């Protein structure tokens, strides 16, 4: 059962940019699409849109569209997505404790 739960969690978070998006929303709260695009310079617009759609579909991110010209779209973590924040803090702490001899190549 635990392995199935982990597989589900990893499926929802898989994708090169999803965790980066989540961290930006965790750190800065509500962000417009253009702000996310600037905050993550390595991501293409198409991929960012797809990753945000998947996060929204999975209930991790909420999307707010304002009916104006030009359109204004904002993203934020859902209440359920915010529950992930303590785990993200632990992940950051765990990464910071990485032994020096095991640096990425």
Automatic annotation (TrEMBL):
<dbReference type="InterPro" id="IPR036388">
    <property type="entry name" value="WH-like_DNA-bd_sf"/>
</dbReference>
<feature type="domain" description="HTH hxlR-type">
    <location>
        <begin position="3"/>
        <end position="103"/>
    </location>
</feature>
<keyword id="KW-0805">Transcription regulation</keyword>
<keyword id="KW-0238">DNA-binding</keyword>
<dbReference type="InterPro" id="IPR036390">
    <property type="entry name" value="WH_DNA-bd_sf"/>
</dbReference>
<dbReference type="Pfam" id="PF01638">
    <property type="entry name" value="HxlR"/>
</dbReference>
<dbReference type="InterPro" id="IPR002577">
    <property type="entry name" value="HTH_HxlR"/>
</dbReference>
<keyword id="KW-0804">Transcription</keyword>
<dbReference type="InterPro" id="IPR011991">
    <property type="entry name" value="ArsR-like_HTH"/>
</dbReference>
<protein>
    <submittedName>
        <fullName>Helix-turn-helix domain-containing protein</fullName>
    </submittedName>
</protein>
